[in-house]
Amino acid sequence: MEIAALVSGGVDSSVVVHLLKEAGYDPVIFYIRIGMEDKDGYIDCPSEEDIEMTTFIAKKYGCRMEIVSLHEEYWEKVVSYTIDSVKRGLTPNPDMMCNRYIKFGCFEDKWGRDFDKIATGHYATTTDIGGKVWLSTAKDPVKDQTDFLGQITNLQIAKLMFPIGHLMKSEVRAIAEEQKLPSARRRDSQGICFLGKINYNDFIERYLGRRPGKIIELETGKVLGRHNGYWFHTIGQRKGLGLSGGPWFVIRKDVKKNLIYVSNGYDPETQYGKNIHLQGFHFITEDPWGVFDDEKE
User: Same domain, yes or no, for 184 and 258?
Assistant: First the structure.
């Protein structure tokens, strides 16, 4: 079986290579460059250390390695989506879009199509029921990443392998320590990859600017302070509001009027709602309730 292993240099994808070799496979390692620089070099996603780590893994296990670039595709599919979502007052999920359109979309179209399987370091598993492949949760409930895979397609999930999905994070690190992998004690990546060391608010200001507005207490209508634009804030946010007498939490945003509504305390009733609004709802394998033939509202 021909397997392409997507390796980032982190401990999870490094252990994936070890497990594949241990199982008798000879994967081809791919490192995907996705950090994007605009004409002013504004976005900085440092990757040299990651490439060094990945190169070490390739040499240690005798695997062929390729460094491929999906800079433009990442900007078009993920970065622009992030900016647009923030502008509409939403909280984006770049990782979810990256999985569907970049790692398992553009990569598959350009390189993955030559392989039988694509292996990644996601904490997830798959289940085969009646000849159909279903996305399933990982053994580690804390590290489970099935939510970030929620928009992939059936064709994509049928081709994926998650070698560490049956392991706890502690077990993955133990294997890395035992095999003396350089990433064994490396911290997990945090934040949005394409930003690199760039501050999130600086990035948003670069593309959306500033638009001063009021911060209002939801229950009383009292103006408590000012903000620089609703796009700098997200529902549930506590830090960065600049208000005294807290804790204050962002409860609501009025995008048209550029208003931020907040409530005080750790458990105010206003923090909870009775309705959940869904869009882009997506079944990966099939609709468990059957085919919907009626008219949609």
Answer: no
The conformation of residue 71, written as its DSSP 8-state character, comes to: H
Task: Give me the domain span that covers residue 253.
Answer: 211-297
Most confident of 29-38, 91-100, 169-178: 169-178
Please tell me what DSSP assigns to residue 229: -
Residues 14 and 129 occupy one common structural domain: yes
The DSSP line for 88-125 is TT----HHHHIIIIIIIIIHHHHTGGGSSEEE---S-E
What contacts 274, CB < 8 A, 6 or more positions away? none
Find out whether 57 and 31 touch, Cβ atoms under 8 Å.
Answer: no
Whether residue 270 contacts residue 287, with contact meaning beta carbons closer than 8 Å, is answered with no
- Lookup: tokens for 171: 């077990």
Catalytic (active-site) positions:
98, 193
In tens, the pLDDT along 131-166 reads 999 999 999 999 999 999 999 999 999 999 999 999
State the Rg of the chain over Cα.
22
Residue owning tokens 């999905």: 165
DSSP 294: S
In terms of C-beta density within 10 A (0-12 exposed, 13-18 middle, 19 or more buried), how is residue 237 classed? middle
Q: Are residues 179 and 239 in the same domain?
A: no
**Same domain? 108 vs 237:** no
Q: CB–CB of 91/234 below 8 Å?
A: yes
Which residues, at least 6 apart from 156, have a Cβ–Cβ distance to it below 8 Å? 100, 104, 105, 108
Identify whether 247 is preceded by a cis peptide bond (ω within 30 of 0): yes
CA–CA dist 6, 18 (Å, integer): 13
Residues facing residue 66 across a β-bridge:
30
Q: Report the DSSP beta bridge partners of residue 227.
A: 213
Cα separation, 104 vs 95, whole angstroms: 12
Q: pLDDT (tens digit, 9 = 90+) per residue, 39-66?
A: 454 454 557 888 999 999 999 999 999 9
Position 200 in a domain = no
